[in-house]
Structures are given as structure tokens and as C-alpha cells.
Design a protein that fits this description.
Elements (H helix, E strand, L loop, with lengths): L24 E7 L5 H12 L2 E2 L2 H5 L10 H4 L1 H9 L11 H7 L4 E5 L4 H13 L3 E7 L3 H15 L5 H7 L4
Parallel strand pairs: 1-3, 1-4, 2-3
């Protein structure tokens, strides 16, 4: 889907616009909020027949997402749907579990600000015999802030701008 803001229940989402492939390729796409990770993820997904594992896509499938602050309301649930949960939900199915059990290529767009989490997921995928590719979408934080503000103005989807400067800064 050209515009991920249009993803809703039954329309758009994790699957590529091409046939799914089972080559055990994983693309871990990291970068600041509003840096263009979703666009890069979409291109990788279509070129490699990969499922996009993005909790932001899953959020749009929940009716509560439409409410004010809806993205925050469904944050935990959408992450569990895509990546699985902790106890007592650890045994529940997730999109990640489904993709790995079926050897599907995957794309994982994340901020990637916690290196230990990036490494843990990459090592977990390597143990499942995946070839893991790390892709950095680099964008100056000032440009990312402007893009995040523009996105908020158009869509109402808000990322606290202080997070980009103070937490995810790239200087």
C-alpha cells in the first residue's frame, strides 16, 4: 500500500504486493521516527517477498486506534500481535512466530535505539537459520523532527518531538 496511514482492518498491512518468498532473509530496518523506515520496509518487502513485522501496522487494525491517543492505547496489544508477549502470553501465536515457522522472508522496521534488543532479535533469527541484514535509514534529527511534525499536522499521529532530540538523537 502506497500510504500506510490508509491501513485498516481488512485493508493493507503486513503482506508484500508480490508473492511471499521462503528464503529465510530478515531485514532489520532501524532509524529515527519519521526517517522513512516504512518506505524502505515497503520496498524491501516487495523486492524480497517479505512480511513486514511492524506493530504500527497492527495498531491500525484495532478499533480503539481511531480514538484520540489511540496509538498509545493499543501499543502493548499491537506489539504482542506482531512480536509475541511475555508471560502469561508467551505461548500465544504472533506474526513473527508464524513467519519464522514458515521460513518466510521478513522486514522489521524499528527505531533500534537499544542495541541489546537489536542484537537479541538478530541472534534469535540467526538461531532459526535466518540471514539477518541490518539496514540503517539515516536522517538528521532536525529533519526527522520536521517530518514528524508534518505527519502529525496531516494525520494526527504524534511522536513526542523531545524523544527525537533527547532520546533517539543521532549527534
Amino acid at each position: 500500500m502506497a500510504n500506510d496511514e490508509k491501513i485498516t482492518l481488512g485493508k493493507g498491512g503486513a503482506l508484500p504486493n508480490t508473492a511471499l518468498k521462503k528464503d529465510k532473509q530478515a531485514f532489520y530496518v532501524i532509524g529515527l521516527p519519521a526517517s522513512g523506515k516504512s518506505e524502505v520496509a515497503g520496498l524491501l518487502s516487495d523486492n524480497y517477498g517479505a512480511i513486514i513485522l511492524d506493530s504500527d501496522y497492527a495498531k491500525r487494525k484495532f478499533p480503539e486506534y481511531q480514538a484520540e491517543c489511540g496509538a498509545t492505547i493499543v501499543h502493548e496489544e499491537s506489539s504482542m500481535v506482531v512480536f509475541g508477549g511475555k508471560e502469561p502470553y508467551a505461548s500465544e501465536d504472533s506474526l513473527l512466530k508464524y513467519a519464522v515457522q514458515n521460513d518466510f522472508n521478513i522486514v522489521i522496521p524499528k527505531i533500534g535505539d537499544v542495541s541489546s534488543k537489536v542484537l537479541a532479535l538478530a541472534k534469535s533469527l540467526q538461531r532459526a537459520k535466518y540471514e539477518v541484514h541490518l539496514v540503517l535509514v539515516r536522517l538528521d534529527r532536525e529533519i526527522a523532527v520536521r517530518r514528524a511534525f508534518t505527519r502529525f499536522s496531516k494525520t494526527g499521529r504524534y511522536v513526542p518531538l523531545s524523544l527525537i532530540f533527547d532520546v533517539y538523537a543521532n549527534d
